[in-house]
Amino acid sequence: MSKSAHSEFRKKLFDFDLSMQEVFELFACLAGEHDDRAIDIMKQARNIKRNKAIKKLSNNEVENLYDAISQIDPFGK
Length: 77
What we know:
The chain is mostly helical and 77 residues long. It has two domains: 1-33, no CATH class; 34-77. It is 77% helix and 0% strand. It contains four helices and no strands. It has helices spanning 3-15, 20-32, 36-56, 59-70. Helix 2 (20-32) crosses helix 3. The radius of gyration is 20 Å and the shape is elongated. It starts with a helix and ends in a 7-residue tail after the last helix.
């Protein structure tokens, strides 16, 4: 977690008189219960992570990936 994200989160928690543990525990319970809001946050986090990984790919790696995909025969075994 970045320092600024941590700082802003702590400030907001202070406004609500909550600890990080209390919020994370609630989130974990909601996610475990398949709460739509928690699942949406997890999907958003996954997309952010995926986009960061994609941005790290060099042009050469992208070209190699496209070459590999183009050689796959979707109708072959």
